[in-house]
Amino acid sequence: MTAPWTRPPIHAEQATDEPVVTGIGVVAPNGTGTEAYWEATLAGRLGIRRISRFDTDGFPLRVVGEVEGFVPTEFLRQYRVTQTDRMTHLAVAATAMALQDAGLDPAEVPEYGFAVATASSIGGAEFGHRAIQRLWSEGPRKIGAYQAVAWFYAATTGQIAILHDMKGPGSVHAAEQAGGLDAIAQARRTLRAGARAAVTGGTEAPLDPAALVAQLPNGQLNLGSDPRAAYTPFAATAAGHVPGEGGAMLVMETARAAHERGAQVHGAIAGYAATFDPAQGNGRPPTLRRAIELALADARLDPSEIDVVFADAVGTRSGDRAEAQALAAVFGPYGVPVTAPKSMVGRLYAGGAALDTATALLALRDQVIPPTTGVAEPAGDCPVDLVTDRPRPARLRSALVVARGYGGFNSALVVRHFPPA
Asked: In what residue span(s) does the Ketosynthase family 3 (KS3) domain sit (predicted)?
């Protein structure tokens, strides 16, 4: 591994309105805490394991990406833990880590200057499931008032805002895996519109049995029992993905605001675009390629200036093939290194794209591409330069993060080393 680039202070001429990331917080199946996750990822440590949350006798799914050893009361008072779902617990924890990493006290930000933009696709499924169980076993009087809000996709945005008195613009984005990038893009918009800072990202807690049953009909889950072979994107043996929980939260500011308080910068959010696929069977092509090209144009970068792609990597043969072909159309076959470190943790849905963005920023910091595990080499119809087996040292200036959501959502995000290399 090459030595990490130092992050010099922002000079006055670099103190622009460009949105930058000043804080990262991670809760993932192979590591809680940003550096613990990064160390595990570079080591190829698997966070996919047999389900321990409930009895799987008769249940078709066997392995998932579980966060182990997470204690929500380390980040929330007990009464708030009771009032909220696990997706919110994970997000609150990641937010606390990101704020600490940024060295930013929300109380120091103007009252209406701190925005919150999160993503969710599953919502608070576990909270809702428990309430339904109480309804049928104990009656309606046993259903608490928080059933009305804890399950909702926007609950995490609201709880983060309440906990930290963040009264700026608030939003939630529901586009499955793509939603994590959409939330980061929304935070970018709020900064450009005048917000002083933003917390953004996504977390999911989709491992409740009711939530898992709802995921089975799409046919994209791998129902095998071997954790090492359960999620092998771009491989000829790819047979779906496994769901996972967790994600990442980021603190974003403008370069000017970061300069004013002497903050360190992880990288810049340089470009973004989103598209939606046409209905199947109408003869029009998918639009992932267009999303990538629009994101590069927004970042004012040529394809040759992208040094690594963090792939969506859905883990199905047809889905991986379509993504590989889109990447080949933009960058040329085998034209840019591609990686999918989510192979170690599972597909975290809205949390996955946010985690990929955090991972891309860490890769820029340390000038190394994390590996895709479980894949010896990509299938012949997936013309990508897949980084496998071990980390690959590389000169990294800019990275592309790609995310697709079930149903036709496509998003692409470009992150860049700051200051520019």
From this structure: 16-417
Domain stop point among 210, 234, 260: 260
Give the Cα separation of 343 and 264 in Å (integer). Answer: 30
pLDDT at 241 over 80: yes
Instruction: Identify the three-state secondary structure at position 316.
Output: coil
Q: Quote the pLDDT of residue 1.
A: 42
Task: Give which of 154, 188, 194, 152 is closest to 171, Cα–Cα.
Answer: 154
Domain match, 245 and 312 both: no
| Residue 408 domain boundaries | 267-416
| Three-class secondary structure of residue 271 per DSSP | strand
| Domain termination site, one of 240, 260, 280 | 260
28 & 128 share domain: yes
* Structure-block tokens of residue 133: 């169980």
Q: What would the two tokens of residue 105 be?
A: 């006290």
pLDDT tens-digit map of 316-339: 999 999 999 999 999 999 999 999
**The amino acid at 319:** G
Q: Are residues 185 and 288 in the same domain?
A: no
Contact status, residue 122 vs residue 87, Cβ threshold 8 Å: yes
Residue 5 pLDDT > 50, yes or no?
Answer: no
Sign of torsion over alpha carbons 76, 51, 48, 416: negative
- CB count in 10 Å sphere of residue 319: 20
CATH number of the structural domain spanning residue 99: 3.40.47.10
Which pLDDT score is estimated for 128? 78
What pLDDT shows up at residue 404? 97
- The answer as to whether 4 is a domain residue is no
**Nearest CA to 72 among 95, 50, 49?**
95
336 and 405 together in one domain: yes
| pLDDT value, residue 349 | 96
The DSSP code for 334 is T
The CA distances from residue 1 to 152, 388, 398, in Å, are 43, 15, 18
Local structure of 184: helix, strand or coil: helix
pLDDT, averaged across the chain: 92
CA-CA distance, 54 to 66, in Å (whole number)?
12
Please check whether residues 118 and 72 belong to one and the same domain.
yes
Residues 296, 228, single domain; the answer is: no
Work out how many domains the chain is built from and give that number. Answer: 2
Q: What is the C-alpha separation between 393 and 24, in angstroms, rounded?
A: 22
